[in-house]
C-alpha cells in the first residue's frame, strides 16, 4: 500500500537544511493492514543535518522544528487529513476574538511538575511578547493577544477578529514553567509534556528520546501503554542519501527521506513510501537596494527567461508537480479552490526588453552591464539536495544566453546562515518556504526584515500585499479571510517576490513502522511492526 498526502515540513528560515521526513500513515491508534504491532524497541530516523538548538521557542530550521515535535505537545492536534482534534485541551469554545480551552486532567511535565492552565497562559504571554522573538510570533500568535487562566480553563483573547484562532493557538508547542523561566535550558534539553523526552544527545551524530511513564493525554486516547509504541526515538544525523538508503535496506533505519538516484533501489526493494509536497524549485529574491534583484523588472526578466519545463524536470528529478498555492503544509489553510495567479510563459525576448528598460544594456561581448557594472546574479542552492546542482546549471545556461553572468553557489548549512542572515550576499536561488497557512506565509513578507529581528530575510516591501494581508487578519469568517489571502498571494506572484517554479512529491521510505506526519512526525502515532 502506498498512501500519499500533500504535506511538507514546517515553515522555517534555514530553509534548505530540511529534515525531509514523511511516513506511511496509519490511524493514530492502529496498524497497517493487519500487520502485527510490537511494543518496545527503538524507532530510528535519519536527519539530513544537525539541528543545533532544540528550543521550541526560537528554533527555525526544518530539522529543529521536526525534533521539537518529539519533545513537546500542543493544545490541539491536526491530523494528516486536516481535522483538528483534542490533545492537551479536552475541548474548546471559539468566537471571533477569543478561544477558551478546557485542559485535560493529570497532565505532567518532563521535570515532574504539573502542567496547568496557568502554565499554558504563560506560554501564550511569552509568545505574544515581541521582545522574546519566538518562532510563532507574528503569525499564530500576535502582540494583541492576551491569555488568562481560571481553574483548568485557558482563555486567549485577540484585540482584533481572528478567524484562525484554533488553527493558530492550538498548534503552539507548550513549554513547562521551568523552561519559560530559563529559556536557555531548552537549547540542549527538553521540558515539555510530550510522550518522549530527550535523554541523550551527541551533536552532529545522534539524539535519543525516551518514552515517559504515566502519559495519558495523547490524541485519540494514546497513553504510555498504547500497544506498538517504541521505547526510544533515535534521530541519527546522516547527510549522505546513499548511506541512508543502505541503512534502510539493512534494517538499521526505520525512516529516511531519499530523493535522488537511490530511490530506484528502494522502490525495487518494495519499501513503503508516503510523499510530501515539497516546493523544491521555489525561488526567492533578495530585494535589498544594493542588489540587482531589487528592481522588479530584473526579477521579471529572470523568470521570463527560464524554460520552466526544462528546469522543473531537472530540479524535481523528473517528478515535477504544478504549484497550486504558496501554502503547502497541513492543514493547507486557504488552498482549496486553487490559486488566483498563473505563472507566465517563457518569453526570452520580453525578458531582454525588461533588462534594457532597467538599464542593463547588452555589450559587444554579449554581456549585460549598467554604469560599467556587469549584471551578475549570485544564485544559491542546497549542496545537499542532489537535483539542485543540475537544475542550477541549466538556469545558468539559460541566463547566460541573455547576457547575464550567473555565479552558482552550493550552500552548506553554515553558508545558508551566513548569506541569508548575515552578509545578505545573494540574489536568488532555490530557496523554499513551507507554510501551513497564509498567516504563516505572511511572517516572511509582511513582517520586519531579519536585520530588525524579523523573518523577512528577503527585505520584501510589497504595499499591495501588505494592505490585503492586513485586511485578511480582520475578516469576519474563514471563507472571507481565505478569499483575501488568495488575492494577497497573487500580488506576491505578480511582483515576483516569489516564483514557485516547480514542486515535487518527496518520498520518505520506511521499514518496520507506521506513523502519521501532519507536518512533523507525530510520536504518538509511531507503531513498530513485527
Automatic annotation (TrEMBL):
Transmembrane segments: none
UniProt keyword annotations, A-Z: Signal, Transport
GO biological process, any: peptide transport
One Gene Ontology CC term in the entry: ATP-binding cassette (ABC) transporter complex
Domain Solute-binding protein family positions: 83-438
GO molecular function annotation: peptide transmembrane transporter activity
Signal peptide: 1-25
Family: Belongs to the bacterial solute-binding protein 5 family.
Protein name: Peptide/nickel transport system substrate-binding protein
The organism of origin for this protein: Conyzicola lurida
Phylogenetic lineage: Bacteria, Bacillati, Actinomycetota, Actinomycetes, Micrococcales
Amino acid at each position: 500500500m502506498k498512501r500519499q498526502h500533500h504535506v511538507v515540513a514546517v515553515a522555517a528560515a534555514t530553509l534548505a537544511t530540511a529534515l525531509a521526513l514523511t511516513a506511511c500513515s496509519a490511524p493514530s491508534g492502529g496498524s497497517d493492514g493487519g500487520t502485527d504491532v510490537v511494543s518496545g524497541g527503538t524507532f530510528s530516523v535519519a536527519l539530513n543535518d544537525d539541528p543545533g538548538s532544540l528550543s521550541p521557542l526560537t528554533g527555525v530550521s526544518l530539522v529543529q522544528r521536526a525534533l521539537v515535535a518529539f519533545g513537546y505537545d500542543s493544545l490541539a492536534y491536526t491530523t494528516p487529513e486536516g481535522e483538528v482534534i483534542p490533545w492537551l485541551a479536552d475541548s474548546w469554545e471559539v468566537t471571533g476574538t477569543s478561544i477558551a480551552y478546557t485542559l485535560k486532567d493529570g497532565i505532567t511535565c518532563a521535570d515532574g511538575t504539573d502542567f496547568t492552565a496557568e502554565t499554558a497562559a504563560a506560554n501564550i504571554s511569552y509568545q505574544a511578547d515581541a521582545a522574546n522573538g519566538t518562532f510563532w510570533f507574528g503569525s499564530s500568535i500576535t502582540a494583541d493577544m492576551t491569555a488568562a487562566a481560571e481553574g483548568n480553563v485557558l482563555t486567549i483573547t485577540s484585540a482584533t477578529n481572528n478567524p484562525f484562532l484554533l488553527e493558530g493557538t492550538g498548534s503552539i508547542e507548550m513549554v513547562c514553567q521551568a523552561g519559560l523561566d530559563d529559556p536557555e535550558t531548552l537549547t540542549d534539553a527538553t521540558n515539555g509534556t510530550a510522550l518522549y523526552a530527550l535523554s541523550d544527545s551527541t551533536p552532529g551524530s545522534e539524539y535519543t528520546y525516551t518514552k515517559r511513564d504515566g502519559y495519558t493525554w495523547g490524541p485519540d486516547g494514546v497513553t504510555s501503554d498504547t500497544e506498538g509504541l517504541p521505547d526510544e526515538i533515535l534521530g541519527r544525523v546522516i547527510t549522505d542519501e546513499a548511506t541512508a538508503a543502505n541503512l534502510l535496506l539493512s534494517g538499521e533505519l526505520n525512516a529516511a527521506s531519499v530523493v535522488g538516484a537511490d530511490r530506484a533501489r528502494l522502490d525495487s526493494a518494495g519499501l513503503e513510501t508516503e510523499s510530501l509536497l515539497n516546493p523544491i524549485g521555489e525561488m526567492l529574491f533578495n530585494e535589498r537596494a544594493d542588489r540587482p534583484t531589487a528592481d522588479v523588472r530584473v526579477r521579471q526578466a529572470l523568470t521570463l527567461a527560464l524554460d520552466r519545463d526544462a528546469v522543473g524536470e531537472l530540479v524535481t528529478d523528473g517528478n515535477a508537480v504544478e504549484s497550486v498555492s504558496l501554502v503547502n503544509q497541513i492543514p493547507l489553510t486557504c488552498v482549496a479552490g486553487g490559486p488566483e495567479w498563473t505563472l507566465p510563459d517563457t518569453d526570452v525576448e520580453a525578458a531582454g526588453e525588461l533588462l534594457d528598460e532597467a538599464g542593463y544594456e547588452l555589450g559587444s561581448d554579449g554581456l549585460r552591464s549598467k554604469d560599467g557594472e556587469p549584471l551578475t546574479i549570485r544564485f544559491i542552492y542546497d549542496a545537499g539536495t542532489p537535483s539542485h546542482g543540475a537544475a542550477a546549471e541549466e538556469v545558468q545556461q539559460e541566463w547566460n544566453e541573455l547576457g547575464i553572468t550567473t555565479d552558482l553557489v552550493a550552500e552548506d548549512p553554515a553558508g545558508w546562515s551566513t548569506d541569508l542572515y548575515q552578509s545578505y550576499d545573494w540574489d536568488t536561488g532555490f530557496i523554499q518556504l513551507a507554510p501551513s497557512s497564509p498567516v504563516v506565509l505572511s511572517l516572511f513578507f509582511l513582517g520586519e526584515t531579519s536585520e530588525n529581528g524579523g523573518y523577512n530575510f528577503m527585505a520584501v516591501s510589497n504595499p499591495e500585499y501588505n494592505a490585503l494581508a492586513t485586511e485578511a487578519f480582520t475578516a469576519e469568517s474563514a471563507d472571507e479571510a481565505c478569499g483575501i489571502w488568495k488575492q494577497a498571494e497573487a500580488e506576491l506572484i505578480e511582483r515576483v517576490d516569489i516564483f514557485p517554479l516547480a514542486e515535487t512529491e518527496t518520498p520518505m521510505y520506511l521499514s518496520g513502522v507506521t506513523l502519521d506526519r501532519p507536518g512533523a512526525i507525530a510520536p504518538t502515532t509511531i507503531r513498530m511492526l513485527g
